[in-house]
């Protein structure tokens, strides 16, 4: 065998191929997927892609902790959280594909969700910048998870009433998962913030680094505004006070104060990213691009 | 002759083999549509990797028992919660040393309240029965379980957490 990947390139039935290696041909198999009659499908596709990319990129980042977390239980916890996010991403990207999003570069046999994950370059990803930031130390990862999951839980709680039946179902399911993620991050923030001098110093530094990316999570894209007016999406600007309230509760419990941070540039929803996203994607996508016929 | 519903009732969960998919509450419906057996299932977690195997196991069991024309459909709504688990399922979990989930009821409307207090229900140790147990991690070897430990007999045990 010339290289370790050769064995992946054997003949298999189409059903055994792709979908992140699960052989799972259709993530929304059997789900009622009618489109609401009034909704603009390209807007719906763009919106599902935004939320799906947030979840996919954070799932990939979080899974980088596998075998590297500070203790075994935390390793397992972060892997579970990454798996939940990946599951949410798969459903959302499949919905985006159904509504018409699909990169032309992807080979025909590749399902939409895989085509979107593996065959787009960084500037075509629509995630907010916060989720792509490098993991940093454990406190950085916890700070990011806290901010993201607070916002995403508030969003999904409201999106459960979306006029799009798939978004509503995905959101209702994700609420219970995100509630666990948020509480987990909040408790670690307390342990670190109200812990030793060193853990407190690191937690403060971590919040200082991540906080500048918070504003982007509440900046509505025109797609979100149009769909929110139709009851399909949630305008993220409407979530701000609810999320601020939760974050303040956590900070008080952790004996921390809100960082006085300037806002970092955003633009992730329009494909403007920091350089680390391209680096992350090159690792995530290398196998799929090098061997598009691979199975595993 | 066995019915399709009886066949479905024999298929177990790939990660929790002491439970059938019916015990787990993953099977929502088994029905006949013009001679085709349709099984409706729902995932426990969005990213549950066992769903693909559940589907294969159901189709294999049905085929083996003469139901050649069978289809498995997935529904996402209403979302699965541990309240869908049957009493039989709870008993089988306890017998296997896994603490079963409590009843949670429907989620109240509005924002989900933040839970900062370390947890959760005080569980009885499934081995020695002691109530002196603690949570080690809210996440365990599968997404649906948490890891606890008995302070009396010192044994760790898993807990099928409520969601």
Automatic annotation (TrEMBL), chain A:
Gene Ontology MF term list: phenylacetyl-CoA 1,2-epoxidase activity
Protein name (Swiss-Prot/TrEMBL): 1,2-phenylacetyl-CoA epoxidase subunit PaaC
Natural source organism: Allokutzneria oryzae
Top EC category: oxidoreductase
Keyword Oxidoreductase: yes
Enzyme Commission number(s) from the entry: 1.14.13.149
Top-level division of the source organism's lineage: Bacteria
Protein encoded by which gene: paaC
SUPFAM superfamilies assigned to the protein according to its UniProt record, in alphabetical order: Ferritin-like (SSF47240)
Cited Pfam families: PaaA_PaaC (PF05138)
Keyword Oxidoreductase: yes
Alphabetically ordered keywords of this record: Oxidoreductase
Automatic annotation (TrEMBL), chain B:
InterPro entries from the UniProt entry: Fe-S_Maturation_MIP18, FSCA_dom_sf, MIP18-like, PaaD-like, Zn_ribbon_PaaD
Record Pfam families: FeS_assembly_P, Zn_ribbon_PaaD
Signal sequence interval, chain numbering: none
Residue span, PaaD zinc beta ribbon domain: 116-161
Entry-linked Gene3D superfamilies: Fe-S cluster assembly (FSCA)
Domain MIP18 family-like, chain residue ranges per copy: 6-72
PANTHER family, per database record: 1,2-PHENYLACETYL-COA EPOXIDASE, SUBUNIT D-RELATED (PTHR42831:SF3), FE-S PROTEIN MATURATION AUXILIARY FACTOR YITW (PTHR42831)
Protein name as annotated: 1,2-phenylacetyl-CoA epoxidase subunit PaaD
Annotated source species: Allokutzneria oryzae
């Amino acid at each position: 065998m010339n290289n370790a990947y050769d064995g992946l390139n054997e003949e298999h039935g189409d059903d055994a191929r792709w979908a992140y290696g699960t052989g799972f041909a259709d993530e929304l198999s059997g789900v009622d997927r009618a489109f609401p009659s009034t909704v603009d499908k390209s807007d719906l596709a763009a919106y599902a892609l935004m939320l799906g990319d947030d979840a996919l990129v954070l799932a990939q980042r979080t899974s980088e902790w596998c075998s590297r977390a500070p203790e075994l239980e935390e390793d397992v916890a972060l892997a579970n959280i990454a798996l939940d996010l990946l599951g949410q991403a798969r459903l959302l990207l499949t919905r985006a594909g159904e509504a018409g999003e699909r990169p032309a570069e992807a080979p025909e046999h590749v399902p939409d969700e895989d085509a979107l994950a593996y065959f787009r370059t960084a500037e075509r990803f629509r995630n907010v910048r916060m989720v792509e930031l490098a993991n940093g130390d454990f406190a950085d990862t916890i700070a990011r998870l806290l901010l993201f999951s607070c916002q995403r839980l508030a969003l999904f709680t409201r999106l459960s009433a979306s006029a799009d039946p798939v978004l509503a179902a995905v959101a209702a399911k994700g609420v219970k998962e995100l509630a666990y993620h948020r509480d987990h991050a909040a408790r670690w923030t307390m342990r670190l913030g109200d812990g030793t001098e060193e853990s407190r110093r690191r937690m403060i530094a971590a919040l200082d680094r991540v906080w500048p990316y918070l504003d982007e999570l509440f900046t509505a894209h025109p797609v979100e505004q149009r769909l929110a007016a139709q009851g399909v999406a949630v305008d993220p600007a409407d979530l701000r006070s609810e999320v601020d309230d939760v974050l303040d509760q956590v900070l008080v419990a952790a004996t921390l104060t809100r960082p006085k941070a300037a806002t970092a540039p955003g633009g992730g929803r329009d494909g403007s990213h920091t350089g680390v996203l391209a680096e992350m994607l090159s690792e995530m996508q290398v196998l799929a691009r090098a061997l598009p016929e691979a199975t595993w | 002759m066995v019915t399709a519903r009886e066949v479905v009732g024999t298929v177990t969960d790939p990660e929790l083999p002491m439970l059938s998919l019916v015990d787990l509450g993953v099977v929502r419906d088994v029905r006949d549509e013009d001679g085709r057996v349709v099984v409706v299932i729902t995932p426990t977690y969005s990213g549950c990797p066992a769903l693909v195997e559940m589907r294969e196991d159901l189709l294999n069991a049905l085929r083996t028992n003469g139901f050649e024309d069978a289809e498995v459909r997935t529904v996402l709504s209403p979302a699965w919660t541990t309240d869908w688990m049957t009493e039989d399922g709870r008993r089988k979990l306890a017998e296997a040393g896994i603490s079963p989930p409590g009843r949670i009821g429907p989620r109240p409307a509005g924002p989900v309240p933040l839970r900062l207090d370390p947890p959760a229900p005080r569980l009885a140790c499934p081995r020695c029965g002691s109530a002196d147990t603690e949570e080690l991690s809210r996440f365990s070897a599968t997404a649906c379980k948490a890891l606890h430990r008995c302070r009396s007999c010192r044994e760790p045990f898993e807990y099928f957490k409520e969601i």
